[in-house]
Structure formats: structure tokens, C-alpha cells
Amino acid sequence: MLKCCRQVFLPHLRLLSTQTPSPNLQASTIEIGNHVFQKDDWSNVTPKILSYIKSEKHLQKHHPLSIIRKRIVEYFYNTYKNNRGTPLFSVYDQVSPVVSVHQNFDNLLIPAGHPSRAKSDCYYINKHYLLRAHTTAHQIEMIKSGLDNYIIVGEVYRRDEIDSTHYPVFHQLDAVRLIGKEKLFGNFLDLEIFENDFKSNPQKIQTIISNSKCIDQSKQPCHTLEAVKLTEHELKSVLVGLTQHLFGDNIEYRWVDTCFPFTQPSWELEIYHKGDWMEVLGCGIMRNEILLNSGVSNSIGFAFGLGLERLAMILFDIPDIRLFWSNDSGFLTQFNEEDNRPNKYKAISTFPQCSNDLSFWLPEGVEIDNFSPNDFYDIARGIGGDMIEQITLVDKFKHPKTGKSSLCFRIVYRHMEKTLTQAEVNETHGKIAKVVSESFNVVIR
Ligand code: PHE
Hints:
Elements: E1 29-32, E2 35-38, H1 47-50, H2 64-79, E3 90-92, E4 98-100, H3 101-104, E5 129-131, H4 139-144, E6 149-157, E7 169-180, H5 181-185, H6 196-200, H7 202-211, H8 225-247, E8 253-260, E9 263-273, E10 276-286, H9 288-293, E11 299-307, H10 308-316, H11 329-332, E12 354-361, H12 373-384, E13 388-398, E14 405-413, H13 422-440, E15 443-444
Parallel strand pairs: 3-6
Antiparallel strand pairs: 1-2, 4-5, 6-7, 7-11, 8-9, 9-10, 10-11, 12-14, 12-15, 13-14
Helix pairs in contact: 2-8, 2-10, 12-13
């Protein structure tokens, strides 16, 4: 059964906005980077929302969103290579989120008056520009610039409630692959991508497509069935492969027919997770009008888009989308992009952190490399126990005149069940200092 064609975005990301706009009413312009935009009655972007631009969580080292991004890109680099071993896909991860209404909607054949265009659902800068609601918005410009295979990653903005799975800013990764006749059919020279009557009269077939409301899931009239089936097979195999690369070979998945204005046919991939089916991505065969409008008339294309937060929440067991914006080192230090197996998130305490440094001189003649930080950690843990959340070596140096070496450790105290008082922290910190100075014969600075 086909779903009704109202939907543009994946359902789990659909908007349930109750937020009221709170624009800076005084100013008549909005400045973003070097650009000044004249405000009008469509402007509803707030200074708080604008402050997320360039936050680039998907590029922050060891951030779970960056780890997911890297894994997906690495999968595409390995899966698609030319005969010299060079990856076919190029990656764009710093494209400005400011797009025109044309880019976000018209270029993608999203009809005027479509609910996804509503002011209540998007962050408009003015009636012509908005903060992209999906990374799909860049399709035409990317293809026009000559790209056949690309991945774009960045943050997208949708007016939404803030709860454990919704946040007005989140990250998407979109990809496009265009396939020409030789690539698709190899030596079968009699096979064609396009139907004969489309070749003779492309205008006619285009009109049929744009006038039909809820479109045929089997194929676009311009494409031959064999071209669609081969492309569908490649698209689905690659995306199942990606899902297995991320979640393991045993992951249960299923394909569900859906409808996007910019692809036909369209599908969602769902995986079985903790007793529920969850959509992880939307995809489909690109509408041929988009390719024609990008200057491509001899290829068939597929496209997909996915949300990085949702994948990271599943992969790392992260319970709340707000954690991705946390600067709390208790969260950030849990993930490491060099680790091959994802470590599961461990709940961080909601009580405040208290950080104290401990510096000391090593005994004369003892070099920094002869001192093992692990010994220090063990002593500190033995005294502080679960009051200690993290310890890091923050500084080491050798005094140029005395030749003595100094180390500085930062201990972050935080209890899981209560707010620690400064006095409690000081007492434990003092004990650690005493035992360390006795055990290692060091002099506390
Ligand atoms: N843009 C869609 C979304 O926001 C995802 C998508 C991208 C679907 C490309 C099909 C093709 O959910």
C-alpha cells in the first residue's frame, strides 16, 4: 500500500511544533557571516537558533556524531572505488545551512502550499531564505557543479519541541549517485535507461509526473523497468550493507514503501531495535526532472538521507538528544573515534562537577617518563572512589634551571547521588595529595 504523498521528511523527524517565534524585534536585518538579510513578516529565526550555525558537532573529534559520520564515509569510500582505487564519492561537510526557498523546496519539486513549507515548521530568515530543513536542499547545485557521487553532511533546522528525541537543530547526511547507461547495463547494449516515447517527447512525460498527486510506486514514466530495478537493487544492497557496517551483520531490517516529492519510487529502511521497528533512512530513485534541471539527461540517480543523531542514539545507547550538545567532559570523554567497537554510553551524573588540580615536583633525578600516571590514578581512585568522575594529566614540564620535573593532574569530582560540597571535595583532595607525596616522594606545589 502506498502512503499518501503529504510527507517530505522522514516521519520520525516530522514537526510537532508548538514553539512560538521570538525574533529580535528591534533589528530590521539579520546578519549571518558576511551576509545581511532584510527581515520581513516571514522572519522567525531566533538569535539562539542562529548561534548553532558553525557549531560543527559532526566534525568535533571523538564526538559521537563525528564518529558516525566517519563510519558512514569510510563505508562509502571502501564500497565505491574507481579502477585506480580512488573513492568515487566526495564529501562536503561544511556547506552553509543558509539556503533559498528554491533550494529547500522548489528545486525538489515540493509543491507550493505543501505543509513542510509552513512558517510554523521552518526557521525562515525572510520570505526568500531559511536555515535548511534537510541536507537534500543542495542537490541541484551539487550536481550542476559536476558531481556524480557525493555525500553532504551538516546540521539542519526544524521548529520543534525539545524532548529526548527532538531538538530544533540536528544533523543529516545525504548522498546522491548518478549512473550512466554503460555503468548500469555493462555489455547489454540493447538496454536503455529511458522509455522510447520519453526520448522523443520529454516534455509530455514530465507533465504527467508533476500532475499526478500520489505517484506510482513502481517507477517514473520516463524510466524503463530494467533501469529502475537495477538501480533499486544497487541502492538497497548498499544501504543494507551500510546498516550492517554500523550495527553488525545480524541486525534485523525491513524495507517500507513511502513517498517523497523528490524520489520515485521511495523507500524507508527500518531496523528492529529494542522491541520496535525504527526508520533509519529515507531513499529512492531521483525524480528525473531534478536531473534535467541540473543539466544531466543521460543518467538515472539514487539518493538517500539519514539523521546522524538517531543512528548515534541507537549505536551508543544515548538516551537523550540533548546530550549531543553537552560540553560536559563526563559525556564527551566516553567516545573515541579510534575504537572499532562502539562503547555504550554510561549515564553521567546530573549533579554538578567540581574540578581540582594537583601539581607536584618529582624527586630530583626522576624523569617525567619514569613516572606512570596509572599509579597516580590508582591511588586517587582508592581514596576518592566513586566521587571521582575523571582524572587527566593536564600539564608536564621540566624546570630549565633546577632540572626538576613537574606534573599536574586534574581531578573532576562528581557524585552520582548527591551534590558534593567544596569541603568534602577539599578533604578528599587533601588526602590524595598526602598519600601521593608519601608514596612517590614528590613535593606538592
Ligand atoms: N530529505 C529526507 C528527510 O529529510 C530524506 C531523503 C533524502 C529521502 C533523499 C529521499 C532522498 O527525511
